[in-house]
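Hello forum,

I keep getting stuck at the same step: I have a sequence, I want structure tokens, and every attempt I make locally crashes halfway through. Rather than fight my setup again tonight, could one of you with a working pipeline run this one for me? It's a single chain of 197 residues.
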Amino acid sequence: MFSIKKSFFFWLRSNVVILLFTAFLLASLPYRNEDESGNSIFLFAFLSECFLILLSFVYGTKTKKQYTSPRKRILKKSNVTQGILVFLFISIFFSYALNGMVPFPSSLLYISLSVNLIMAIYSLIAPSWVIKIYEYNIYEAPNGWISDLLYFLFFVWSVNYEVQVVLYRLPFLLQRLLGIIFIFVLIINIFLISSMF
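Reply #2:
Ran it on my machine without issues. Output:
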């Protein structure tokens, strides 16, 4: 059975993320290559949208295999200041580390997609483990500066988590096939970001 409403709301919610990612790329436009005509940004958004439409169909399809995520309120008032400081520290670090290659804020997107790529490859082998380790570090790990740093890293690969939760409901072979397609989308998008600058 297929739910158009569920599929549409998933697609709408996910498009906000694509718009945010595209905004990161547009913010760095003054630093792009002279030969770059803007096709890379279009291809980035187009390829992401195609995969998102495919994922929306999977999300709207009811299957026997379901996954219940233990979602809780992630942002706590006590963590906001520490979280902002850790985010600024890591942003500055990556802006200097990738300065010759990808300018800030696109460097954050580049790092995020790279981490998601690594976790997507792990997800082909053990998707349940990747989902559980993410949930432990986001929802259950104790607070503190070290956990805030880890929290940032895990927050960075939340795209892979969301994709794997949707793919979890599929049969083994179909899940792995869409996982491979997701890996190719990430690789191409990382290459497109590199080619812009």
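Residues 172-196 form the longest helix (25 residues). If your local run keeps crashing, start a new thread with the error log.
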